[in-house]
């Protein structure tokens, strides 16, 4: 066991504070990672505040982890000391179900082990990346290509794969019209990726406040959803709508923007139930769907794609003592566009 410094929420809705946690000894197939940077995801806030239901405390959040390998177990073949690596939203799964065998570990039918607020196979709680070190099985670690700066790569371990996976699955590319709802931590990465895939990209945001940013990030068009005329002008326009916001929407209005056989894919998870009229998908064989993160192979594919196209997250680097302030700013949409913790400050 190794004692490491971390930031944890001692109880639901409590401010995060500096503490220490125990990391397991490095096993045969384990990788010990010196965490260099950890992104702050909105889902961290949902879980710390029990917005998605009862959680485990103390909680060390963080599933956007970028660092450097400092030790490997004797059976490790994929990584060596000094390698630049990342860890995303899960650190294990059953490995034997059909989904795991297909590289879709995020949909493990026996339940994937989440990087934090989970329980490992050893029965111990999992602690995330707001810490100085983490121990992870090599099969759930990915390589960060040299073309990506570690601080800008960290958010890709959640925001990147959460947007890349559905865009990839629904075949975003040349000839396709993609709308990204929300230009926040997820949405700004989604715009970059959809543009790099070759799609025609539109941002749908509440106002035009971030229009200049959206166009610089790769959007071809930018519309305000606060203007009812937007929904009249864009009826039947899009092949894919990627909804990145975690608040209830007027799904009838948004689904009307889809072409025949178009899909609206939700990657944000509201804390409250949402309503939908079935007739809003009936007319043009539209699809209302959702997508989680990606499996380990697709996460590596995403990182390689981002490196090839020079895509990193737009970040604001903070020290650990700014975490609680950063949470409030995320809730106020006051970040351009992802907070990343310099874990040397923990």
UniProtKB/TrEMBL annotation:
Q: Does the keyword Oxidoreductase apply?
A: yes
Annotated source species: Streptomyces brasiliensis
Listed InterPro entries: ADH-like_C, ADH-like_N, ADH_Zn_CS, CAD-like, ER, GroES-like_sf, NAD(P)-bd_dom_sf
What is the E.C. number?
1.1.1.2
Q: Which residues form the Enoyl reductase (ER) domain?
A: 14-341
Q: Which SMART domains match?
A: PKS_ER (SM00829)
Q: Which domain of life is it from?
A: Bacteria
Q: Which GO terms describe its molecular function?
A: alcohol dehydrogenase (NADP+) activity; zinc ion binding
What this protein catalyses is: a primary alcohol + NADP(+) = an aldehyde + NADPH + H(+)
Q: Which cofactor does it need?
A: Zn(2+)
Q: What's this protein's name? A: alcohol dehydrogenase (NADP(+))
Similarity section:
Belongs to the zinc-containing alcohol dehydrogenase family.
Signal sequence coordinates: none
For this UniProt record, give its keywords in alphabetical order, as a comma-separated list. Answer: Metal-binding, Oxidoreductase, Zinc
Q: What Pfam family is a match, any one?
A: ADH_N
